[in-house]
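Limitations

Structures in this collection are predictions, not experimental determinations, and the ligand pose is part of the prediction. Treat each record accordingly. The example that follows, with S-adenosylmethionine as the small molecule, is included so readers can see exactly what is and is not provided: the inputs are given verbatim, and the output is the predicted complex.
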Amino acid sequence: MERKTTGLFDSWQRQINYLRISVTDRCNLNCIYCSVGEILPLRHEDILSYEEIEKVVRAAAEMGINKVRLTGGEPLVRPDFCKLIRIIARIDGIDDISLTSNGILLGRYAEELKEAGLKRVNISLDTLKRERFKKITGRDKLKEVLAGIEAAHKVGLEPVKINMVVLQGINDDEVVDFARKSIDEGWHVRYIEFMPIGTPNGEVSGMVAAQEIKERIQVLGKLEPYVGPEGNGPARYYRFPDARGTVGFITPMTEHFCHTCNRLRMTSDGNLRPCLLAEDELDIKEALRNGVSTNGLKRLIQQAVNMKRKEHNLDGKIAPETNGRPMCQIGG
Ligand code: SAM
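Predicted complex:
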């Protein structure tokens, strides 16, 4: 049967083809800049089931969503997570399924994930130093993350991208070490500007601008602009001469990329969220639990997309309203 895709557009004529789903708010790390503080984990019954997620993705795919990213919390701590990949991989119209993970459990699951239909993975890693890893994340798991990166490469979850959130005085002295990995080991490193959310007490504040990082890492050579690796995200990529890997910069603070935004988010407790950095959300869990039809779901999806603002209101100084939600619930 021919798939009817009309395309999903927001009020600013941006085409929305990418759905990011937070599958859990729980995590096996407790990073200083992403910690939930006093907020209790969501109750299991408040989290969307795999069947409910499937319904939403099916409706979204009929509207023109063709890329899905699973995130969290840590997606791999959700029981039987590979089952969800298998379900989504079978949905007509979805041709790219990716994962954002801290990598700890990838050594165990990479092969099964690949078989299930996962295409590629982004792994978050902020330091290459064991003691510092413990300080940032609260756990002694650097070895497992490095094993996870290897496992992802081994089974071909390519391109494997390594996401580093750069924090002044905490890990910014390692930006060159990460860049060197793009030369020596073919890593695709992405430097992410820290956003002032998820740190209610303001204990972490030191954003380092991408431009500064770019200047600092060029002690290793002159960076050349590079197209790719595969992906449709906001990163700008470069490469050192003869490097197999790349370095990318994600600049939500110093140069927002809202005009190219192609995404819609879904929180683990079933809210469509048009923008990471705006408080607007549209509840769809209630409709799902009241037996909403596919057409009803499509109307809700379009309604959420219509709520997308032209751009977010982060200007480098103002902490945005995130509706009291930590990053792990929204999905980073
Ligand atoms: N557990 C998975 C992981 O570690 O990749 C997925 C969820 S995590 C919230 C997704 C990404 O958001 C990570 O790369 C994390 O470093 C990033 N992140 C969390 N809080 C952030 C902040 N305030 N500013 C920038 N990036 C942040």
